[in-house]
Amino acid sequence: MLEAQDLVLGYNNAPVVHGVSFTVADSECVSLVGPNGAGKSTILKAICGLIPIMSGRVLFDGRDITKCAGHEVAELGIAMCPEGRQVFPEMTVMENLMLGGYTRRKSPLKARIDEMLAMFPRLRERSSQMAGTLSGGEQEMLAIARALMASPKLCIFDEPSLGIAPKVVGEIEETLQKIKRSGMSILLVEQSVSMALRVAERAYVLEAGVVALEGSSAELAGNKKVQAAYLGF
């Protein structure tokens, strides 16, 4: 479904990602893990058309989307739940959800909103509340629901547990597992490597802008280098 080929990415003509390649198959969950500054979020922004690609290609459903703008990528069926949630704080929960469904021009929004409120009961309780007054965990749930509103083919999650209270992180993981079971393709960047390896079938370990390791989540969880660097073994 998604194929990144030899991506070189950066800012102000200074590359921070150096020839990274990876794939996400239909109905598969793949994770990109690694230390801060490895280039993970930069890769996600490039896929979503938010920063230009210096060289390399991105293919989605066989189509070259390397030069597509952000709104074109969204209309093709890629949605992103960004790092730091980035909900619209002065809009209500319901208004945030409605904005998430803007690409569903030919489909009624009500049924999809009902699905999201069933998946996230706390959002139903707070549907008329301003998003900026929600707790961090509730805002993350809203950001996830907003991304899912468009019924994307591929959903990208950038650090969904970042800044979330430990007791809520388990709920976020459970939600990701539920989305995966629905058959949606997922690309996950997550600071908690142990959680990422539990959710994803495969993972790529990025270091200094290159792929240092790749394999199934079980293989990487058993790798001594990964254990020492990321799992605290």
Compact overview of the structure:
This protein is of the alpha/beta class and about 230 residues long. About 40% of the residues lie in helices and about 25% in strands.
Q: What does the model show?
A:
With 233 residues, the chain is an alpha/beta fold. It is built from ten helices and ten strands. The strands form two sheets. Strands 6-7-8-3-9-10 form a six-stranded mixed β-sheet, with helices on both faces. A hairpin with a 2-residue loop joins strand 1 (2-11) and strand 2. Helix 3 packs parallel to helix 6 (136-148). The longest helix has 16 residues, at 166-181. It starts with a strand and ends with a helix.
Layout of secondary structure:
Elements: E1 2-11, E2 14-24, E3 29-33, H1 40-47, E4 55-60, E5 63-64, H2 70-76, E6 78-81, H3 93-100, H4 109-119, H5 121-125, H6 136-148, E7 154-158, H7 166-181, E8 185-189, H8 193-199, E9 202-207, E10 210-216, H9 217-221, H10 224-231
Parallel strand pairs: 3-8, 3-9, 6-7, 7-8
Antiparallel strand pairs: 1-2, 1-4, 4-5, 9-10
Helix pairs in contact: 3-6
